Amino acid sequence: xxxxxxxxxxxxALDYGxxxxxxxxxxxxxxxxxxxxxxGKKSVKRFSGALExxxxxxxxxxxxxxxxxxxxxxxxxxxxxxxxDLLKISYAGYACEVVDRLLPExxxxxxxxxxxxxxxEQLEISPSRADDRRFFEVNLLNILGYRxxxxxxxxxxxxxxxxxxxxxxxxxxELLCSGCGNGGHQLSSVSRGLLKNALATxxxxxxxxxxxxxxxxxxxxxxxxxxxxxRPLHSLQFLQHVLGVxxx
Length: 248
Hints:
Distance between the termini: 49 Å
Number of domains: 2
Number of helices: 8
Number of strands: 8
CATH class of the largest domain: Mainly Alpha
């Protein structure tokens, strides 16, 4: 059987039987795949003890329809500084789960792979910041084709222009003009501008949200992501618990 070599981030892992592991992998070359690692729970020689969530690996893989076969791994990094910090673990686990849930299987997406790796690298070397989570989310939605319309009303297409006023947003994170909205939640022009800046720059740490904008942008992004999910994210509940945030 032909063995492929590729780079991957572990999105999820679970024990299977007494010795095996089933892992969900986001590979640069093949997209998202699921694979079984025979003796993955015990074989340090073949898998280096690295079949854990958000580890970055080089894989030796036999591709199969349904469930591929993982033959061996080499560690690129397990992000040790993330693993020593509960809040960083929470952010990294959330990023991996949301990618897992939104990315179709076997769809190659190098831009999203770079975004996820960049976010994990940012968590590894920098303090945990909610700004970086929101930067990750708005770019994630954009790359996957779920871009939030920041320039025009999502329903009628009216141009928001450079108005200094707030725009409204729906329960699904759609931005609306005054004619299409119902007078509910508001997103300020400052917050909208910061989200646009987050899409315009390619680097974490450049865009910082003041507290009010962080709350407004977060509400929009949470709603937009939730609208594309069929069930709640377990990792988001854990992250909220670590942050001390009361779930909505």
